[in-house]
Amino acid sequence: MNVDYAGQKPILEMKDIKKEFSGVYALSGITFDLYKGEIHCLCGENGAGKSTLMKVLSGAYRPSGGKICFEGKEYDTLTPALSKELGVNIVYQENDLVPSMSVTENIYVGNEASKKFGFIDYKKMRGETMAQMKDLGIELNPDTKIEDLSVADQQFVKILKALSVEPRILIMDEPTSMFNVEDAAKVLKLTRKITERGIAIIYISHFLNEVVQIADRVTIIRDGAVVNTYRNEHRDISISTITKDMVGRPVDTFYKKEKCRIGEVVLEVKDLQLTKDSPKVSFQVRQGEILGFSGMVGAGRTEIVRALTGADPKYGGHIYIRGREVQIKNPSDSIAQGFAHITEDRQKLGLMLGGSVLENTTIIGLRSKIKGWFVNIKKHPPLVEGIIRDLHVKTPSIWTEAIYLSGGNQQKVVLAKWLYADQEIYIFDEPTRGIDVNAKAEFYKQMSALTAQGKCIIMISSDMPELISMSDRVLVIRDGAVDGELSGEQINEHEIIKRALGVKKHE
Ligand SMILES: Nc1ncnc2c1ncn2[C@@H]1O[C@H](COP(=O)(O)OP(=O)(O)OP(=O)(O)O)[C@@H](O)[C@H]1O
Ligand SMILES: [Mg+2]
């Protein structure tokens, strides 16, 4: 919808908002406004203050200064209840759905939206769910259990749930970070559709190509302050304008793996089977090589590497490292055999949130670097500082607990941990999801450096440019099986999508 910026007043104005955490300002005076029916994108590097600003708006944080103004009425602070009452709702990045309950139940039950129907009236709620889905062009069965839905469909349910309370302002914090290109396009279309109801959307994403397509306005923040707000009605803002404001200097967003010598086979996986009935998976990775795993979300890529590294049990198959068969029954076996596995779900699986940045970074690597049993890591900060600096981890110090870092910076700590661990076979599962452009480029450099040292990498990625520019070879995974291999010129977007969707090879 076309937003009338001149003829109407904003429905929300956040004026000079400050937020301090133990003496450090995460927000140092942010002014941000929002008009009915617009999509206002919020961009900034990891740790810039995007989530913090949204927490002030949702009433989770009390600001240290500034005013929040809803249609002329001013507040010094909000509570979660007041924020909801004023019409603000968030689509959380974390999954807050109940897996064993149906789509309808998740949208209404135990949610204030159910009050609309009086005492729980499932039939009415189901009818309303169907009507909502029809209106928004979502095709889902309202009785399906959440656990039987794809990640993308679960995201639609989260959006429907947020809409069920009929908000006036909807916050979407990295809504497409779990998606492949096609599903992301569906979410973008849905987001547009939502604004037709007059709902205003605050949209946070590190996918800047999405931002330039979808935003009516873009506000860029750096170090807790606004750098610029741009109008984008003509869809003419460029990614480089945004990145320059985010980082403070022009950024080369294109990075290609440096050529290095591909050597002997390091890892060979033969007939790996997850269950009795699942397909047999075989592949090799060579010294200095990056092997990309492409495929739709849910194609079974994560499951294959989880079985390989002993995170999940496997039914059968053989694993050879430099020609010698090895037994991997659990993740510690895999670490002992030289694997580094950077999982998809970093917060849950990759970090001790209560531990410091230093502890998290060194937990695996230190054993091999410093001899002796009783290692006092507190004596070895210099070993870590280089990596933390290289990856641009924004943290007050290496002694800060991981829980206090922003989402993207927590991910960087997990990457730092494995880089520091100095393993031989690296498995990266969606490594740069949620990471800002600047750190992405740095991370690619680090990947190149690993291969130059003769290590090998398996990279699962739904980020097409990343897969194309970094992989030496790409395996297409479909329905848990290796469905094809691409190399050289074949590694292009058209070919990858065609294969992943299962279009016949000789068409
Ligand atoms: N509860 C807290 N205590 C201390 N510091 C915090 C807390 N929450 C956030 N911070 C700090 O505030 C800054 C802004 O963090 P915020 O989560 O808002 O970043 P972000 O822009 O959302 O980044 P990302 O893209 O990584 O999600 C960071 O430096 C972070 O370490
Ligand atoms: Mg954030």
List strands and helices in order, with pairings:
Layout: E1 12-21, E2 24-34, E3 39-43, H1 50-57, E4 65-70, E5 73-75, H2 80-85, E6 88-91, H3 103-108, H4 122-136, H5 151-163, E7 169-173, H6 181-195, E8 200-204, H7 208-214, E9 217-222, E10 225-231, H8 239-247, E11 265-273, E12 281-286, E13 290-294, H9 301-308, E14 316-321, E15 324-326, H10 331-336, E16 339-342, H11 346-350, H12 357-362, H13 366-369, H14 382-390, H15 407-421, E17 425-429, H16 437-452, E18 456-460, H17 464-470, E19 473-478, E20 481-487, H18 493-501
Parallel strand pairs: 3-8, 3-9, 6-7, 7-8, 13-18, 13-19, 16-17, 17-18
Antiparallel strand pairs: 1-2, 1-4, 4-5, 9-10, 11-12, 11-14, 14-15, 19-20
Bound molecules: adenosine-5'-triphosphate and magnesium ion.
